[in-house]
Design brief:
By secondary structure, this protein is an all-alpha fold. The chain has one domain. It contains nine helices and no strands. Helix 1 crosses helix 5. The longest helix has 31 residues.
């Protein structure tokens, strides 16, 4: 992938991650926690959201290295669970809002792809629009799928914690500080024939088939 396409891909990824985080903050606000709003995080302005490593450096390295799985993230939106009306349940709802937003964007993108392919548009423009929309769909599917992995601090862990007794849930979520290292280890080293990267790729392929692309 040349530099122009790499830059476009990163821009799509960054804004997809930003919308993911805004969804967290907005739902938290609706459920009683104004933290994200007060800190100016409910905005499409990328400056409050950008993390130099996770938003720029990591995805650029993955893209230029030809990785089949491209991932990145914006700065997490702060949520104060004490402000939420129904503690653990609302935290799970807030957590689901991010991936749900990415899946919605992917679904809209898939619909637009179908419209583009049947529209009387110049072939060169059709090819470009198809690539652009397909990139939007795939990156948002990847963000949604990845964030639902039940390893702290990812969103899926907050949902899974809701199924555990409160004490066990707290212990489980406490590993969030090392969770990113666990994730990278599982992505790099298959265990017992299980490869997290292959699992994510298979879910991505299945999701694309569901969307008809």
């Amino acid at each position: 992938m040349d530099l122009t396409f790499a830059v476009i891909t990163i821009i799509i990824l960054v804004y997809s991650a930003i919308l993911h985080e805004i969804a967290h903050g907005y739902v938290a606000y609706r459920l009683g926690d104004p933290t994200a709003k007060l800190l100016g995080r409910l905005t499409l302005d990328p400056r409050p959201h950008i993390d130099p490593i996770m938003s720029i450096a990591l995805p650029l390295i993955l893209i230029l290295s030809g990785s089949p799985v491209i991932f990145g993230a914006a700065k997490p939106v702060p949520v104060d669970g004490f402000n939420l009306r129904d503690g653990r349940k609302d935290i799970a709802i807030v957590s689901l809002a991010g991936p749900a937003t990415n899946f919605l964007i992917a679904a809209i993108g898939a619909l637009l792809i179908k419209l583009v392919l049947i529209s009387p548009i110049e072939p060169n423009i059709t090819v470009m629009l198809h690539w652009l929309l397909l990139t939007i769909v795939r990156l948002n599917l990847l963000l949604g799928i990845f964030n639902l992995i039940p390893i702290p601090p990812l969103d899926g862990s907050k949902v899974f914690a809701l199924l555990l007794p409160e004490k066990e849930a707290a212990a489980y979520l406490s590993i969030g500080s090392i969770g990113i290292f666990i994730l990278f280890f599982l992505l790099m080293f298959p265990i017992g024939g299980f490869s997290l990267g292959e699992f994510i790729f298979n879910l991505l392929t299945f999701s694309e088939k569901l969307l008809g692309i």
